[in-house]
Amino acid sequence: MTVSTDRIDVVGIGNAMVDVLTHETEEFVAAQGLVKGSMTLIDADRATELYNQMGSAIEVSGGSAANTIAGVASLGGTGAYIGKVRNDQLGDIFAHDMRSIGVQYGVPRSTEGSPTGRCLILVTPDGERTLSTFLGASVGLTPDDIEGSLVRRARILYLEGYLWDPPAAKAAMRKAAEHAIADDQRVSLTLSDSFCVDRHRESFLDLIDSSVDVLFANEEEITSLLEVDSVEAAIAGIVGRTEICVITQGAAGASIVTADRVVQVPADAVDHVVDTTGAGDLYASGFLVGLAKGHDLEMCGRLGSIAAAEIISHIGPRPEVDLAELVASKLR
């Protein structure tokens, strides 16, 4: 077999999931004992119970880093994805969906154990999403699944904080980071969720200090990470710990923090927020494509804002239009 040596803009590693999205009331979310806007890990029995109580739903391939890589492809970038699924129907769907959009995906599927993971997403009328995640086969990712030659082809390696729970998956991401660093490439990390930060604060900080060049976080995640009360304090605290820190702030846009300046990038206008699922994932898509192509930070942030705005204008975490064409129309 001939192995391609062409450069890849972004290689992402994360939980390979299928998302199940439904619109529900805030009362329904509360009745399920869930914290609105959060992510909760659940087992197979709870996944079945909640699914049976949800209204009509849309099923789409998802997973945070997988959404980001899908966005990279839609923006005209090149992407590859590393994540574990089972050899079942949902696993077939996931693999087909990734390859059909031009993403390289060749991780061997599990032949035993848990089924392909799924994320049950409750979208309230304000567009906020509450996630209940059954990780399933995705937690079976191990260092053996990391193809060093693939990672070394990447301009940027992108790591998903949601996958930091399983020890073997954590070891896999550390191995990938070592390959990237050895080849003098950038390593990026998304903190994913404030609950992830609460569980892994010290190991996240250790990874950031030792290996991360580009950090993505929202307001809640960055203030939790640094145990401070404001974004301003978080900005002061993150300077010097990573080359670039991107702090997304919803309708207020984003703050891009470097050692010597803070770049403020406004959010792209949206007529109506339908579903915020994937907003952070797609912001990362735009920013990373911009960075891989050598654009300045202002343009990287602009690309992120355009991609995020498209995602929150409809239900689901994957683009419904060609983002490269959308960007071209916006930047004329």
Tell me the β content: 15-25%
Low-confidence stretches: none
Give the count of helical stretches.
Answer: 12
Query: Main sheet?
Result: 8 strands, mixed
Whole-number count of domains: 1
Shape: globular
CATH superfamily: Ribokinase
Draw up the topology in text:
Layout: E1 8-13, E2 17-23, H1 26-31, E3 39-41, H2 44-53, E4 58-62, H3 64-74, E5 79-82, H4 89-100, E6 117-123, E7 129-134, H5 148-152, E8 154-160, H6 167-182, E9 186-190, H7 194-211, E10 214-218, H8 219-226, H9 231-238, E11 244-248, E12 254-257, E13 262-265, H10 279-292, H11 297-311, H12 323-330
Helix pairs in contact: 3-10, 7-8, 8-9, 10-11, 11-12
Provide the descriptors you would attach to this structure in a database record:
globular; 13 strands; 39% helix; UDP-N-acetylmuramoyl-L-alanine:D-glutamate ligase; single chain; alpha/beta; 5-stranded mixed beta sheet; 8-stranded mixed beta sheet
Explain what you see:
The longest helix is centred in the middle third of the chain and has 18 residues, at 194-211. The mean pLDDT is 94. The protein has 332 residues and is of the alpha/beta class. It has helices at residues 26-31, 44-53, 64-74, 89-100, 148-152, 167-182, 194-211, 219-226, 231-238, 279-292, 297-311, 323-330; strands at residues 8-13, 17-23, 39-41, 58-62, 79-82, 117-123, 129-134, 154-160, 186-190, 214-218, 244-248, 254-257, 262-265. Helices cover 39% and strands 20% of the residues. The chain is globular and about 50 Å long. The protein contains twelve helices and 13 strands. Strands 5-1-8-9-10-11-12-13 form an eight-stranded mixed beta sheet, sandwiched between helices. The chain has a single domain (8-15, 62-114, 140-330), classed as UDP-N-acetylmuramoyl-L-alanine:D-glutamate ligase (3-Layer(aba) Sandwich). α3 (64-74) crosses α10 (279-292), α7 packs across α8 and α11 (297-311) packs across α12.
